[in-house]
Write a sequence for this structure.
């Protein structure tokens, strides 16, 4: 009979851009999310877990205009024809949920959500196609009190997970102020040209300028977003006549007049020593714009509301140089930065940077219902915040393994199991070695790989004498690394105790190591 | 200019078979999973969170043999040609993870995993296409001590989440015993026919029977699985000559001889008063099969190991009538059942039933590496267990909302925010009403919808007098429902206290309601 051809073995690999998380990585994230959820809950936010799968239609941003609508998302077609996709963030599902359930939900609706999202993007180093987000949003309130509350909650959250006061700063800006500048600089020029009042005949050029500026708001926003990258000189070039980049290629500028560019720079630099001084500078920049002045008033109100709750500018500060997100949001925007230094890949000091951001976006559910619903919210970068906590030593890099009860005599497995049962019932993490017990060395190697603090040993001799051996593996490895022979003799890391003192001795050793 | 045709509004709907989880549903599940993870961790199991997306190749069971390999899974093709899919359980990913990382993982590898899985199946009432699983497995140990440990851990887990001892029972069976019956009945018949020793000439018919029985093991298993549905008489018919179902249609039987059918029934009915008696009955049934006797020995050892740790048959019991899963597993199988009665849809009493199951499956990673790796594990039905806890009153059906500070005077928002800040800092869930405050009635309606226990009110008059009103909404609604007019006068549900006693009074009311 001919040999049947075997199917080739499948590759044991995660798909490209995906990864697995092990042990400590999982539990530390779960613990951090639990603390965050605790703060959100205390602020009156309710949990929401929407389905990971949405219709492409409901997700919206990626509506099909090609045969396969998977630009940026993982999407597939159902047999009956509907396109489904994995959610790419937690905000688009919130819009769908609110539109779907709005008659049953309270208004305003405060909700938090945490979980993985998926992006069908080219993976890169440290950039994965599945990652966690952790959001809180208030839907249905146009009050800036809702924005202020989000900022206060963000400060509380950072402190709750272990970022000390002084190690973070929440910076607040307002999209309306930026809109106001565009309006105000044009208006200001007009007034300068016609100090005695506007001549309807002569103002045409300025009205044209204003229209052109407003039309280029998005381009301005994208340019200001490059502030950190290209610096002030770069911004001046990009808003004005254009700029040669590092490769020598010429990037055309937006061609804005000098005094307009000046207005934007004044905005970026408006941050002063106190919130009051900042706000007063901003008022000057937007003096001829109602929307701009409204934006400054909102910032002033946010600062007042926060001050009344004890959140001063040492924690939450008005700072117009926060540009990120101005393009997306419609009102106040906020960003939480960690202010301590870390060393980058090349050993240079740099600030840790942003771990959370958010703002007001008032068109959340309009797509579904036709009605504008105001909303404001924040999203925490879970992985970055975890990295920060690790950096600050707030979470242990290594997990503590279980106490390992070794198997010296396979026939007495029941007795070894009774030992771990005793330890576990006392709340101590413990296990019996369940591999092949023949080679004792393998059992200790296993304990080492598990980062076990203690090994318990009961051979036939110990059994006969009613004692057990308890090996302090942490002390043992310290001694092995650093001690001289004399110290080694003086500081035994293995103890013989009567069987009925096992629990007490294990406790003593764990306590000694602060475990 | 012609009006631009608007795109139709997207439907705000979850895809068919998916749902959203709100508030309490989310937090209660998270809390239960946290407790379960705590027990698993104490037993030495490490967390694992594998990616939700796997290659179809790695998932295996659903390998492409058609154009679109999405039978049972949600799958899609990457631009470069790989087929990806959402995981349909947590075991297939464990196999991939262990094969991929086996050089870095300890052996045995104890891991737990919890999270959503996805099934591309026809949704039905209460049956969703995304649901939670919560698994613990020991990979790389062939010892029945690993199986016993899983059973002990399952008992601890159920008690930890709030199922009282006596309200659950973990029943243990062994696939090898079932295999042994098939071997043993054939062998037994042969020995009866040739009491003085086997005649090589005459034994052909029995060898044929044995081969036929072994070939029909899967069909036998599927039939035994119908025990609960069709009862003993039905099983006899289905294993034997066939059976007419309720509609009158004839279902052909497996055509097994009567004495074989009798063997299987003896197996199903082997459960006796004590484990010892059960095991001794099983030994009789499989007396001529080495595999069967090995299976009984394993069950005996599991019972001994558990007894040594204090888990008696009141919690974990040998019970051969556990048939579910016998087709899938290769050794010991276990099932946790809740033994208390509930009322079904039609008001009839019935047992709550199974909430967890598992067993030994020894071919986990062979697909990937060619090497057989023994493994054993358990999976908890998260949603069923939550339903059970709700049934037993172990988790509140209703969530307690935040204390709501009402807004009587929009200009004093900062003061109201300061009030909630004070409450939150004392750990009390609280919020300011952030909707339009004009109609006070809406604020109280909101508090009602949020299930708020308390509303705090400070109008201009109260402010002037330095007092606030505190409304006990729980008491208020109790009184509204049940009290007479006199009682209503005697038991005021609204209290006026000085502003600086707000926190104390709120605490007092919450304490009174046990919140």
């Amino acid at each position: 009979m001919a040999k049947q051809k075997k199917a080739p073995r499948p590759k044991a690999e995660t798909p490209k851009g995906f990864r697995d998380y092990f042990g400590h990585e999982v539990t530390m994230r779960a613990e951090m999310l639990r603390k965050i959820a605790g703060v959100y809950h205390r602020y009156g936010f309710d949990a929401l877990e929407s389905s990971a799968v949405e219709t492409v239609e409901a997700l919206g941003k990626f509506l099909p205009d090609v045969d396969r609508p998977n630009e940026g998302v993982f999407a597939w077609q159902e047999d009956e024809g509907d396109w489904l996709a994995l959610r790419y963030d937690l905000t688009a599902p919130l819009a769908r949920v609110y539109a779907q359930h709005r008659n049953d939900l309270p208004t305003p609706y405060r909700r938090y959500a945490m979980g993985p999202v998926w992006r069908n993007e080219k993976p890169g180093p440290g950039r994965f196609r599945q990652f966690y987000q952790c959001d809180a949003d208030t839907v249905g309130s146009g009050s800036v009190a809702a924005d202020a509350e989000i900022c206060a909650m963000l400060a509380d959250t950072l402190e709750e997970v272990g970022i000390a006061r002084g190690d973070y700063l929440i910076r607040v800006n307002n999209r309306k102020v930026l809109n106001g500048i565009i309006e105000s600089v044009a208006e200001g020029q007009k007034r300068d040209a016609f100090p005695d009042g506007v001549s309807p005949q002569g103002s045409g050029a300025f009205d044209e300028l204003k229209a052109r500026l407003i039309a280029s708001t998005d381009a301005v926003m994208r340019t200001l977003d490059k502030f950190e990258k290209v610096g002030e000189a770069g911004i001046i070039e990009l808003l004005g006549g254009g700029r040669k980049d590092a490769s020598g290629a010429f990037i055309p500028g937006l061609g804005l007049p000098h005094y307009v560019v000046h207005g934007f720079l004044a905005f970026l630099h408006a941050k002063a020593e106190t919130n009051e001084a900042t706000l007063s500078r901003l008022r000057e920049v937007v003096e001829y714009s109602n929307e701009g002045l409204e934006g400054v008033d909102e910032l002033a109100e946010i600062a007042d509301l926060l001050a009344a709750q004890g959140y001063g500018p040492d924690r939450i500060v008005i700072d117009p140089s926060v540009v990120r997100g101005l393009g997306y949001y419609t009102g106040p925007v906020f960003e939480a930065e960690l202010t301590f230094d870390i060393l980058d890949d090349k050993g240079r000091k740099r600030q840790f940077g942003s771990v959370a951001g958010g703002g007001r976006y008032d068109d959340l559910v309009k797509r579904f219902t036709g009605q504008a619903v105001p909303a404001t919210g924040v999203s925490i970068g879970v992985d970055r915040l975890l990295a920060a906590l690790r950096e600050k030593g707030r979470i242990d890099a290594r997990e503590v393994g279980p106490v390992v009860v070794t198997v010296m005599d396979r026939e007495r497995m029941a007795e070894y199991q009774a030992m771990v049962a005793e330890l576990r019932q006392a709340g101590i993490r413990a296990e019996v070695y369940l591999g092949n017990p023949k080679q004792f060395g393998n059992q200790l190697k296993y304990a080492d790989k598990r980062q076990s603090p203690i090994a318990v040993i009961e051979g036939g001799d110990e059994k006969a004498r009613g004692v057990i051996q308890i090996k302090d593996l942490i002390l043992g490895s310290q001694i092995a690394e650093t001690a001289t022979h004399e110290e080694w003799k003086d500081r035994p890391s293995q103890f013989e105790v009567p069987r009925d003192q096992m629990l007490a001795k294990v406790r003593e050793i764990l306590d000694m190591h602060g475990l």
In short: The radius of gyration of chain A is 31 Å. Chain A touches chain B through 103 residues (CB under 8 Å). Residues 173 and 320 of chain A are 5 Å apart (CA to CA). The longest strand of chain A covers residues 332-343.
